[in-house]
Amino acid sequence: MDVASGGGPAPFLLKTYDMVDDSTTDEIVSWSSNNNSFVVWNPPEFARLLLPTYFKHNNFSSFIRQLNTYGFRKIDPERWEFANEDFVKDQKHLLKNIHCRKPIHSQSHPHGTPVDQERVAFEEEIDRLSCEKVALEKAAHEKAALLSASKLQLEDSTQQVNGMEQRQDKLLNYLETAIQNQNFVEHLAGNLKLWIFQHIIRKGVYLKLITPGQFQRIALWTTIAALGPSLGTFSTKISQTICFLNFEVHPLT
């Protein structure tokens, strides 16, 4: 029989009785209305606060297994209510009648032997390791998901950079071909002359001594500048181009 020294009730029973009988924690665990059973009202808080205080662990399943070992039974399918005919409020002396039941797989060992205690300890350790395993698997899954998301973001960024490089290469190839095409350059220069007349001379300024070759240079530079969206409006690009080439700009008199 699993008893304390002197033949008294087992420590597990005494601790369970004191825990249930403590009125300051009735919102977590308390006697039932008929006082011959007890109810765990809040299992998470029971495992978090009370089990470590009384039993040095926080495993609710292990606590239930120990109740079963001492002949307690769950009497309400809708809640965690347990009963034993010798576990009664204000009848603590009856606890001495509750004995640890002999395990089915340990017929060769008497009740309450160190073998039973070791078995319970092993079961508690197994439960603890199982909980740790679940927590580690969850953490590993979360890290794997985060790594996968980061990998997708990196692949997307790499594709964007590659696309920009390809567009840049195409643009440079196009400009290189355009520079070698005299008709294309002359066409740009003609359009530039018209634009200068419409947007600069009309505003009271004129360009002095711009040769056809200089217009071609302006046209090419303007084409390159116009392809950069961060340089502002097209008229700003023309003004920047003129200043860049150091052409003289005079007000009309």
Counting DSSP H or I runs of 4 or more residues, the number of helices is: 7
Largest sheet: 4 strands, antiparallel
Q: What is the CATH topology descriptor of the domain at 11-97?
A: Arc Repressor Mutant, subunit A
Q: Tell me the CATH superfamily of the domain at 11-97.
A: Winged helix-like DNA-binding domain superfamily/Winged helix DNA-binding domain
Low-pLDDT segments, ≥5 res: 1-5, 104-109, 228-232, 244-253
Order of strands, widest sheet: 1-2-4-3
Oligomer: single chain
Family: Belongs to the HSF family.
Coiled coil: 119-167
Function: DNA-binding protein that specifically binds heat shock promoter elements (HSE) and activates transcription.
Domain HSF-type DNA-binding: 51-75
Descriptive notes:
α5 crosses α6 and α6 (212-226) crosses α7 (234-244). The chain has seven helices and six strands. Among the domains are: 11-97, Orthogonal Bundle (Arc Repressor Mutant, subunit A), CATH 1.10.10.10; 117-177. The termini are far apart. Helices cover 57% and strands 8% of the residues. The chain is an alpha+beta fold and 253 residues long. Mean pLDDT is 75; it is low at 1-5, 104-109, 228-232 and 244-253. β3 (73-76) and β4 form a beta hairpin.
